[in-house]
Amino acid sequence: MELRQLRYFVAVAEELHFGRAAERTHVAQPALSKQVRNLERELGVELLDRSERRVKLTDAGRVFLEKAYSVLEGAEEAEAAAARAARGEVGRLSVGFSGYTLYGVLPEAVRAFRNRFPGVELSVQEGCTKALTEGLMGGRFDVGLLHPPLGEGAGGALELETVATEPLIAALPEDHPLAGEAEIPLSALANDTLVAACRAAGFGPRAANEEEPQTAIGLVAAGVGVALVWESMGNLKRPGVVYARLAGTPPRLETAVAWRRGNPSAVVRAFVEVVKGLDPSVSRVDGPTGARKASTILS
Question: What positions does the domain HTH lysR-type occupy (predicted)?
Fold first, then answer.
């Protein structure tokens, strides 16, 4: 049994005339009649009464017509669903993200993707770049928003596309000796405990090594040390914390979207394209022109 046979039969059943049914389905009348005969032969019943000048449905034909409608409707729905899936409009997507992207690309990426692809079931989970990389390689995540470099072995397994870069700024306790400075050299923090730090200034900082940005800011507020955070985090309101620019050419935090190499998922491709199409200025704020309280939005 073929779908075209069902369509031919439905056309004859509705028109009750082989000639009009042939015109409607854009097929020669002999070919249409043959396919309907083949369908009846396969079913082992007569669907049409041809004994009179006008074609009529048999009892079996009336019952079969209702089922044929359901089958054809289901086929159309399946075809439409397959097309939506091929365009990445339906399915599931697991997104892993670094905590710092909460203050950068993540909110706008999720919002834009949900607006464009409401039929996709989206789940998000936070993690450090190492955990996200392992999760991507192991199939736990479909895509990740994270910060390169990804570590050994990831280069051959993952695709990577940079979507944003942003300079780092210093977050200091408000009673820090440098808290009143508008701009400070990174080397001036050499003797401070760094909650999150880099070695670009040529010194090895004592690091508390916190992955969560809000935890890092909380430790700064508690006087544990200073933190290097990206500029957008100047929007994070926290009493007892001030921000200052880093002198010279400050280190920059790169954000990338990553996915498994060779992943054929249309949903993954759709998400990557949405992220790549974001305005890089979205969810960003200008860095501090001087040291400010964390409760002040930087401008």
Answer: 1-58
